[in-house]
Design brief:
The complex is a heterodimer of chains A (207) and B (217).
Chain A lengths: L1 H26 L11 H10 L13 E5 L3 H6 L6 E2 L8 H12 L3 E5 L7 H9 L5 E3 L2 E6 L2 E6 L9 H15 L32
Parallel strand pairs in A: 1-2, 1-3, 3-4
Antiparallel strand pairs in A: 5-6
Chain B lengths: L1 H22 L4 H5 L6 H9 L4 E2 L1 H9 L5 E5 L3 H6 L5 E3 L11 H4 L5 E5 L4 H12 L5 E4 L2 H10 L10 H16 L7 H5 L27
Parallel strand pairs in B: 1-5, 2-3, 2-4, 4-5
The chains are: A alpha/beta (207), B alpha/beta (217).
């Protein structure tokens, strides 16, 4: 009699666990979008893929996408561009569209009012596995309801700040008879955050 | 013997379920690359302009000696050595995810401000770090070029501009002086005017002659 009760308990427990597993499996939602690459691979890709210039863009192998909002797009856009606002790039319809472009071996060229506007959309698509996404290096502005597109150099080196400061001091010193010594800028010591190196612990055998 | 026969198939059944479930582990490597926050959340973070800090705000924090800011230059080493913002640390973009720099990026004590020549590389670095869930990261809007044209070499407003433009200019000019730029109109202040000094009346004081102490007794 006792043995029979024991087996009864076991079977009840088994049924409950199976039910739990089934419920968990049903409740589990597969995420719609999964990253295809990790951050290190993404970093490598963005370093290797600088934005392309307008004259390197080939309409036969690439599709232009305007990531600005609908109103800006309707005011004026580059010829043959399709409007997909950057907040809508993960929509179902657009995902299907991007997948199709990838299968057709066409590259996706994004542009906004300025190149850094297109970064968010392009980097997310990159990390989702669309390695055919590129940014167009152009600035767009409206002039009398006409879109003006000017090519732009990204990360252009500007004027040297230190040289400018030195030149301004020199200029003032030349003008004055009295040599004014520039006030030395108090240099705040650099912050150094100590990097704790993780000590490798010898693996201790369990049990 | 009888009981053994009764239990055995159940155990077999249970162990079979366990084996099937263990088979599910094969699926895990597919999710391994899914590190960091979800793409949907990353997108909504990335399109919000919240991360930007303006050059004026940064200048203000410099001048008030804000100890909580930490500036990170994401350009390469040669441009960093040539010309950078004061007190910044160099983490080239291609080495961003090195373990050595983790302590700078993944912390909550400082407001980290990323910058490059314009905001392109800094934005890329920000998005990668945001995916990893790093907090307190900001991007300097316009980068060093904007810093130069607004703070170091501000444009003088024309007369038809509103009052606020003049106020902004005077702030920027003062800020540029703080960073070492000198202006011609500073000369007036710097050169002390020669004032006529009235000769001081000198009243001769007769000094008491010290009388050598005469020894008593």
């Amino acid at each position: 009699m006792k043995e029979l009760e024991k087996t009864k308990n076991i079977s009840i427990a088994a049924v409950i666990t199976i039910l739990l597993v089934i419920i968990a499996l049903l409740a589990y939602k597969k995420p719609k979008h999964l990253y295809a690459i990790n951050t290190k691979q993404a970093l490598k890709q963005i370093v290797e893929n600088p934005p392309i210039q307008l004259n390197n863009y080939n309409p036969k192998t690439a599709i232009l996408i305007d990531i600005r909002n609908q109103y800006e797009y309707e005011k004026g856009h580059i010829e043959n561009a399709i409007n997909i606002h950057s907040s809508d790039i993960l929509d179902d319809a657009n995902s299907i569209f991007f997948k199709k472009l990838k299968e057709d071996n066409k590259s996706i060229v994004l542009y906004g009012n300025e190149p850094s506007e297109a970064i968010s959309a392009s980097m997310i698509l990159h990390q989702l596995g669309y390695s055919n996404v590129k940014i167009l290096a152009v600035n767009n502005s409206l002039n009398q309801d006409k879109l003006i597109t000017t090519p732009v150099e990204i990360e252009k080196k500007g004027e040297n700040i230190n040289q400018f400061i030195k030149a301004s001091i020199k200029k003032v010193n030349e003008l004055s008879d009295v040599q004014i010594k520039p006030k030395p800028i108090k240099v705040i010591p650099k912050k150094v955050i100590p990097i704790k190196k993780k000590k490798k612990m010898p693996t201790e055998g369990g049990c | 013997m009888k009981t053994k026969k009764l239990i055995a198939p159940r155990y077999l059944f249970l162990s079979a379920i366990l084996i099937i479930l263990a088979g599910g582990l094969v699926l895990i490597p597919k999710f391994e690359k899914h590190e960091g926050i979800s793409p949907e959340l990353l997108l909504s973070n990335a399109i919000s302009p919240e991360r930007y800090i303006s050059t004026d705000e940064l200048a203000d924090r410099y001048i008030s000696r804000d100890p909580t800011i930490l500036l990170i230059d994401v350009r390469d080493e040669s441009s960093f050595n040539e010309n950078t913002l004061p007190n910044s640390v160099n983490i080239p973009l291609n080495k961003l995810l090195d373990e050595n720099f983790d302590a700078y990026l993944n912390q909550t004590a400082y407001d980290v401000i990323l910058f490059s020549n314009d905001s392109f590389k800094a934005n890329q670095a920000w998005i990668l770090c945001n995916r990893l869930g790093y907090k307190n990261l900001h991007v300097l809007k316009g980068g060093i070029n904007e810093w130069f044209s607004t703070i170091i070499n501000p444009k003088e407003p024309t007369e038809n501009m509103p009052k606020t433009a003049f106020e902004l200019y005077s702030f920027r000019k003062a800020a540029s002086m703080y960073f070492g730029v000198m202006y011609e109109d500073q000369l007036k202040i710097a050169v002390p005017k020669k004032t006529k000094t009235t000769p001081k009346l000198v009243i001769p004081i007769k000094k008491k002659k010290k009388i050598p102490t005469e020894g008593g007794c």
